[in-house]
Amino acid sequence: MPTPQPTVVPAPTGVPLPASPDPVGIERALARVTHLVGRVRQHERLMAAAGLSPDRAATAILRHAAGSDLLRPGTPAARLSVEASPATRQPGRSEKDGRVQRVPDPEDRRARRVRPTEAGPTAADRIREVNLRGMRVAPADRPPEDLRLLAELFPRMVGDFVARAEAGIEP
Fold it and tell me: What distance in Å separates the CA atoms of residue 75 and residue 60, rounded to the nearest whole number?
């Protein structure tokens, strides 16, 4: 059986890019990663290790708010390329826990924005540190060049997927 030739997939910018020579392998790896990080128990373990509530929406809002001054509630959803409705309805448990607070939007008094309290960045740092511990341990046996290449290519690939999704380009 002949080896299939890579096809050309139009990029969101209109510049054609060659399709991956191994889309099946990439899809399988991404599906496994998505499954692993999306598991409720895994998220609960991470939040317990960080000493925080396991509320997913609150976690996303907290992580994004901690790096901002004033954040529109839908911004975390936009940055994560997910539906905005849960994020825009409520900042979630992070507000109840005193890590973020809603304040009037200076540009639109009818709207509210979210900003971190003094406790917010510390909690977000704990989440990041727990995640980084796992990221340091899992690939510990990989050569530094593999890790450097992964750190360079993975964000670019994710950016390509996000750009296609946001541009509404169908598979």
Answer: 10
Residue 92 structure tokens: 């979630």
**Average pLDDT rounded to a whole number, residues 68-73:** 76
**Poorest-pLDDT segment among 7-11, 20-24, 133-137, 139-143:** 7-11
83-91 contacts, C-beta under 8 A, 24 or more apart: 86/57, 87/57, 87/60, 87/61, 90/57, 91/58, 91/61, 91/65
Amino acid at 55: D
What backbone phi and psi angles, to 5 degrees, belong to 66?
Answer: -65, -25
Contacts of 163 (CB under 8 A, 6+ apart): 11, 12
Amino acid (one-letter) located at 25:
G
Count of CA atoms in the C-beta half-sphere (13 A) of 84: 8
Strands 8-10 and 100-105: unpaired
Contact 20, 26 (CB under 8 A): yes
**C-alpha–C-alpha distance, residues 41 and 53, integer Å:** 13
